[in-house]
From TrEMBL:
Residues 27-243 form the Integrator complex subunit 5 N-terminal domain. InterPro entries: ARM-type_fold, INTS5, INTS5_C, INTS5_N. This is Integrator complex subunit 5. GO terms for biological process: snRNA 3'-end processing.
Amino acid sequence: MSAMFEGNALSAMQTSHCHTLNNYSPQELALEIKAFISGVDQTQGRKLNVRDHARCAVRLLRTVPACRGAVLEHLRGVYDEYVAAFLRDLEAEGENGGNCTSAASNTSVSNLEDVIKEVHAVLSEFIKLSPKAWAPLVSTWAIDLLGQLSSKHAGRRAAPHSSSLNELLQLWMSCAATRSLMECYSQCLAAMLAWCPDACVDALLDTSVQHSPHFDWVVAHIGSAFPGTIISRVLACGLKDFYAHGYSSAEKMSQQQAIDKSSRVPKIGSVVGILGHLASRHSDSIKKELLRMFQDSLSAPSQNVPPHSSGTGGWENSPHLRRATVPFLLQLAALSPTLLGAVSAELVEFLRPPVLLQLQAQFQALPREELENMLGLAVHLISQSPSGGARVLKFLADTATPSSVIISGPTPSPHDSIREACDRLLQMLLLHLHKLVHNRSEGDEPYPHHSSASGSAMPQVIPFLDELQVHIGELCAETLRLERKRHLWLHQLLCLLSVYGGASVATEALCQLFTQARNSEELALASQLYTPLSTSLSGLLPSTVARCVAQIQTQNLNNKELAQLLNNLATAIQSEEEDRKNEVGSSTQSSMSVQVRIAVSNHLHDFCPLLLYGDTTVSRATARLLSCSQLPRACSPAHLLLLCRAAVSHFFVSVRQRGEGLDVGSQAGEEEVGHSMRLLSRLAGYSPLTLKAVLQQLVEGALHKGNRDLFGGLQESPGDDMTQSPNHLGVSLLGINCKFGTAVNFSGSVWSVFHSGVIGKGLKPPHTPSQPDRDRVIHNIQTLLAVTVQCCSSGGGSTTGNARNGSAAGAANGRYPHAKEALVSEELPPINAEAAKVIAVTLVENICPDVANGELSWPPEEHAKTTVERDIHIRRCFEGNAVLFQFLCVVAAGRPALCYCSVVLRGLLSTLLAHWEASREQLVSDSPWHLQASCLLVSCMGEGQLLPPVLSNIHEVFPHISPYEVRLLLLGVWEYMRGNSPMPQKFSFCADQGLFFRDFSRDGDVARYIAPIHSVLHKNIERLGHLCWRFQV
C-alpha cells in the first residue's frame, strides 16, 4: 500500500504524525496489529467486540500508514453494521408505532456512532493535512462503500423506493455512517478539483454504473453541491471513456442498441443518469456545457496547452477526442430525452454556414457506413425531439432549399454539398416519420426487435410531430408559398401531421389552407391534402367547414382573410362545374366539391348574416358562396325566412353599389349582382314559402323610399323640419315678449298684447328632385325585372305555370314603352300563376292597404266620386314609382293574377278619366305621363285578358287623337269592365299548353262597347285609317 505514495507525500504524512508514533513502542504496535488481524485482545485473551475492533483499526490507521488499506476494508463492515442497526431501529419503530424500540439495536447504534465520528475525524484530518496522499484513496473508498450500502439495503422495509429520490436522500443523510461517507467524499472532491478531478469523477461514474438506481441519491447530492464541476467533469470523463471503448463501434450501433440499456457503453450510461438527476435544477448549466462542448470540438485547439493537460478535461487539445465529441453528444441525446430537449432548440442557432462547413470537413473522412448510421441517429433524434421542432424544420428547409429559390430572412446561401446533405437528411426524416406514423396502429415500438412484450401496446408517440401541431398555421403559410421542392416537403409533412394528429389536426390544416390560399393553384393544395386523408378520416370536410364557421363567429379573421375564405369555399364548390365543362374526370375533386357543397348547405344560417356585412368584399364573397351552394333538404322556416330577407336586402345593396362611383358595366359589381340574382332564384325555387317571401320582399324593397331612386322613382320632398332656418332654432317666446312689450306702448288701454310666435316661415323652398342617370335607371330596372321573372319562372315547387311569354313588356327595355313598341317578348320564360298572384297581392297591400282583397267587381263610373282620395293616392304611387307598371306587366303575364289588382287598376283608370275630361290641351302629348300611363294600363289589361283583343288595341290610337276622345275610349273600357268583372273563375286551364285562357265569347256581344272606337276612327280616318283592321270584331 505504501508504495502508492510519493516520497514527499509519505514524508509529510509521517512528519505530521510523529507525535502519535512516539506514543507507541514497537512492541505495542505489534500487539495492536496482531489484535486487529486475529480479533482477540492480546493482553486479556478475550475476543474483541465490534466497537473495540473498530477502535483498534482506528489506532492502526493513525499510527501505521501501511495498514490503511486493510483498515479501510475492515471499516466497511463497521459502517455496514451501523447501517443495518440503524435500519432495524427504523423498522422496529414503525412496527411499534414509534412508542418503543429494541434495546439491543439502540445499544449497537450508540456504541458504533462514536466510532463513526472518530473515523470521520481521522479521515478528515488526513485529507486536510495531506490531500494528494489521502484524497484519491478516501474518495474511491467512500464512494464505493456508499454504492455498496445503498444497493445492499435497498430492499429493507425502512428504505423508500429508488424512484422516491427526496425520501431516499433524507433517509441516508439522517444516518451518521452514510452522512460521514458523503462528507468525506465531498471533502476529497473539493480538495482534488484544483489538480486531479478526473479520478474522483471516474470513481463516481464507476459506482453509478454498478449500483444505479439505488446510488442516484448520492449523485443528486454531489451534483447539487458541485454542479458546475460535476457537469463539466462528468461530460469530459464520459467522452474519454466513450473514445476509449471505440466511438466508431458506438456509431455503428443501431438506434435500437442506443435505447437498450443492456448494450450501453458503461460510462455513458452513468453520465446520462447523473446529468438526468441534475437537469431538474441545473438544466441551464447542462445546456450551456453541452453547447460549449459542441463549439469547442469544432474550434481550433489552443497552442499553449499540452495535449493531455488536465485543465477542464484536457479533451479540447486531443484531435481524436474532438472528432469523437459530436458522436458522443448524439449518443447522449439518444439515451436521454431530457438532454435532447435541453439542447435541440438552441443548437440550431449555432449551425451557421461556417459551422456546417467545419462539420462537413470533420465527417468527410468517415466511412460511408458510419456516416449513414450517424445520419440515421440524427433523424431519430429529430423525430424524438420534444421541443424546438419548428426551428429545426425551418433550418433544414432553408438549408436544403435550392439556390434558385429566394429564401425569406437573413439566412445566407449554404454550400452545395451542405445543401445536398440537408436535402438528404430531410428526405430521410420524412421517410422515418412516414414509417412511424403508419406503423403506429400495430402497437409497435419504433424499433422492431425492442417491441413491447404486451400485445396491446400504446400507439407510438412522436414528440417532433406533437410539437409541430401548434404550428399548423405557419406550416400552411410556408407551404402556400409554392417554392420549388420546399412546398412539397412541407405538404408531405402536413399530411403526416394530419394522419398522426387525427381529425382535429387535419381539420385545422384544411381550414388554414382554405383561409390562406390566394389563388386556385394554392387552393389545389387543399384538394391534394384531402385526397389521402379522405380514405382514413370520415367527415373531414364537414368538420373543416364547421371550424371555418367557428372562426367567423369568434371574429378571429380580418376582412381580407374572411373574404378570402369565403371565395375559396366557393371556388372549391364551383370546381366541379368547371371540370364538367372542361370534360375533366377528376373523381377526387368532384367528391371534394360535393362534400364542401353539402357541408356549406348545413351552415347557410351562419353565412347569411355576412350578406349584409359592412365590407363590400366580404358581402360579395358571401353572395358568391351562397349562390353556388345547394339548399338543405330540411331547413326550418325561421332560417329560410332569415336567409330570404338577407338575400333580398343584399340584392338592393349590390345594385346600389354597382352604380355608386363605378361604371354601369363594372365587372365586380356585375358579378356581385349576378351572384345575388342566382341566390334569389334558387331560394324562390326551393319551396312555396321561400317563393312568396322572396317576391314579397322584392316588391316591397323596390317600393321602399330608400330604394326608390334606384328605379327612377321620385324622392319625397323634405318636410318642414328640414327647411327650418337656423335663425328660428332655439327662439325664446319670453325674450320676444319682453322686447315686444317695451317697443309698443299700451298704457291707458284695457288690452294686453302678447307675441305668440310666427305663423309659418314664409314660402317653402321649391323642391327640385335630383335627376338620376337614365341609363343607370334602365339598367337597374332590367336587373330587378330579370330577377323577378327568374323567381316567378322557378315555380317554387308548384306544378302550375303559365307560359305566356309576353310578361313584362318593360322587362326587356326597362322604360315606358311607346304605343308602337311591341309588348310581347318571345325570349322571356313562362311566369308561374301563383308567383304572379303573390306579386299582385303585394302590390295591392303596398299601394292601398285599406282595401279588402274581395273588391274585384267594377262599379259604375259615377261611383268613382266616392273613392276620389284613394284613387288620387293610387295615382301618386304610380307617379312616384315608375317600376309599378313593370310589375303590372309581370303580373299580367301570369294569368289570371291581374284580377287581384282590380282595385289598383280601377283607381288608376278613374284618375285618368278625370284628367282627360278636365284637360283643355289640344294634343295628348301635352300630358306625357298620363298618355304613357293610359297606354300601359290598357296594354297590361289586354295582356292579362281582362279586355278582349279589340279593346286591348285602343292604346295604339291614343297618341293620334284628342284628350276628349281618349276619355271616350277609356270610358268604354270602364263600361266593359263593369259589365264583365275580372274574376279568376272566368279563366280555364289548358293542360296541353299549360296556360290559362279566357273565352270572351261567353261574355256576350262586344260590339256595343266598340261603337265609340269606330266613331273615333271615322272622325280621324286620315290619320287612323291604317289601324282600322285592328278593331274588327
